[in-house]
């Protein structure tokens, strides 16, 4: 059995998903939907599928069972709700949405119609991250006590001009927090545990031609009283690295470099360096890190990493439908990332810690985003 799968939003990242569907043992690629008839037809011709400009028509005529949502983040809500009301499961490109209100609307629609939501978080499938998660679950570092995540990279003016929606509050929903860093934020909360409060600052350091932030710094307190910090920026040429390190209560630490070299841009560049464990002080396992680095690097050189790991998640999502179980990364997990970057925006706006859990705000400043713009 294969799940009849379609894409909405035939942009750059959609090609990664299309290739993942084609390679999946559990998915059948049947159609694509987009606003531009010409662009959508070109995308469809590449993969030998049918093109539509009406989502409901596509779902009904193609008997779609799973929809992969690749529209810009502020426009995830509507197609997911339409799909849910027609009994269709949705796998959403990261982040799940740009607002908590949109997340909750999608979760409600999925619950009412008994369909699944998944959110793309393919770095959870990286071998070094899998090792870290298992070591933490097995108690090898004790309880996580201190964590930090760092992502330093670069986006130039040509990047922001590559699509008309980039760099604007109303069409992108945010900057480095919303577009480039959701993977790091997802891993941070997944490995460290539930969050209690966040204090943060955001800035636009050297991108005067965009509205959104290019840098964010946060201090996080977790419910079990562990602490951590987040440093994210698009302001370092040509792009440096991303790392996540978790230090345990027993003194042992585990960590990974998830990004290296210039930052990956879907449809424009490839993943340049393999993800590897770069810190491992679990007693008796210290020497394993060099073996893992070689194994992971050798494997990396045999795959297209961007396509491969997204393909793993697509395969899991379709298999979860077949097996009537939750996908590996659920909509509830996707909301946690939106909750975290929303807390960062609100904290910067209010110059105060933000307590969890967060609910949508009825506010005209987009949960604190516009305060940065007004304070320039």
Write the layout of secondary structure elements.
Layout: E1 3-8, H1 12-23, E2 27-33, H2 37-47, E3 50-52, H3 55-62, E4 66-69, H4 77-85, E5 89-92, H5 100-113, E6 117-119, H6 127-137, E7 144-152, H7 157-161, H8 169-172, H9 176-180, H10 182-192, E8 195-203, E9 215-222, E10 227-233, E11 241-248, E12 253-260, E13 276-280, H11 288-300, H12 305-323, H13 331-350, E14 354-355, H14 369-374
Parallel strand pairs: 1-2, 1-4, 2-3, 4-5, 5-6, 7-10
Antiparallel strand pairs: 7-11, 8-9, 8-14, 9-10, 11-12, 12-13
Counting DSSP H or I runs of 4 or more residues, the number of helices is: 14
Sequence of secondary-structure elements: EHEHEHEHEHEHEHHHHEEEEEEHHHEH
Radius of gyration: 20 Å
Helix-residue proportion: 25-40%
Strand order of the largest sheet: 13-12-11-7-10-9-8-14
What is the fourth-level CATH superfamily of the largest domain?
Dihydrodipicolinate Reductase, domain 2
- Low-pLDDT runs of 5+ residues are none
Query: Which class best fits the helix and strand makeup?
Result: alpha/beta
How would you characterize this protein structure?
The structure is a single chain. The protein folds into two domains: 127 residues, NAD(P)-binding Rossmann-like Domain (Rossmann fold, 3-Layer(aba) Sandwich), CATH 3.40.50.720; 181 residues, Dihydrodipicolinate Reductase, domain 2 (2-Layer Sandwich), CATH 3.30.360. Helix 1 packs across helix 12 and helix 4 packs parallel to helix 5. 39% of the residues lie in helices and 22% in strands. The relative contact order is 0.16. The protein is an alpha/beta fold and 376 residues long. The protein contains 14 helices and 14 strands. It is globular, with a radius of gyration of 20 Å. Strands 13-12-11-7-10-9-8-14 form an eight-stranded mixed sheet.
């Amino acid at each position: 059995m294969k799940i009849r799968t379609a894409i909405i939003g035939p942009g750059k990242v959609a090609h990664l998903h299309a290739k993942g569907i084609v390679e999946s043992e559990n998915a059948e690629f049947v159609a694509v939907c987009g606003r531009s008839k010409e662009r959508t037809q070109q995308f469809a011709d590449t993969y030998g599928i049918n093109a539509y400009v009406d989502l409901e028509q596509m779902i009904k005529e193609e008997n779609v069972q799973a929809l992969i949502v690749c529209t810009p983040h502020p426009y995830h809500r509507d197609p997911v709700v339409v799909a849910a009301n027609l009994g269709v499961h949705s796998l959403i490109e990261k982040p799940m949405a740009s607002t908590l209100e949109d997340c909750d609307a999608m979760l409600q629609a999925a619950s009412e119609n008994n369909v699944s939501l998944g959110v793309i978080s393919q770095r959870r499938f990286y071998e070094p991250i899998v090792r870290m998660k298992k070591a933490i679950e097995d108690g090898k570092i004790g309880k996580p006590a201190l964590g930090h995540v760092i992502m330093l990279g670069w986006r130039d003016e040509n990047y922001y001009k590559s699509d008309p929606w980039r760099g604007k509050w109303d069409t992108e929903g945010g900057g480095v927090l919303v577009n480039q860093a959701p993977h790091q934020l997802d891993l941070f909360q997944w490995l460290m545990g539930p969050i209690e409060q966040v204090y943060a600052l955001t800035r636009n350091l050297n991108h005067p031609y965009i509205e959104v932030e290019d840098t964010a710094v946060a201090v996080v307190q977790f419910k079990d009283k562990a602490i951590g910090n987040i440093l994210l920026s698009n302001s370092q040429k040509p792009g440096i690295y991303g790392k996540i390190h978790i230090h345990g209560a027993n003194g042992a630490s585990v960590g990974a470099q998830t990004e290296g070299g210039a930052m990956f841009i879907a449809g424009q560049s490839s993943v340049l360096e393999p993800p590897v464990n770069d810190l491992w002080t679990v007693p008796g396992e210290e020497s394993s890190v060099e073996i893992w680095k070689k194994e992971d690097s050798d494997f990396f050189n045999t795959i297209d990493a961007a396509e491969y790991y997204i393909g793993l998640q697509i395969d899991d999502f379709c298999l979860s439908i077949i097996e009537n179980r939750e996908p590996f990364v659920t909509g509830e997990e996707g909301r946690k990332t939106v909750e975290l970057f929303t807390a960062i925006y609100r904290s910067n706006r209010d110059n105060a810690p933000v307590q969890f859990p967060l609910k949508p705000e009825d506010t005209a400043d987009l949960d604190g985003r516009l305060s940065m713009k007004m304070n320039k």
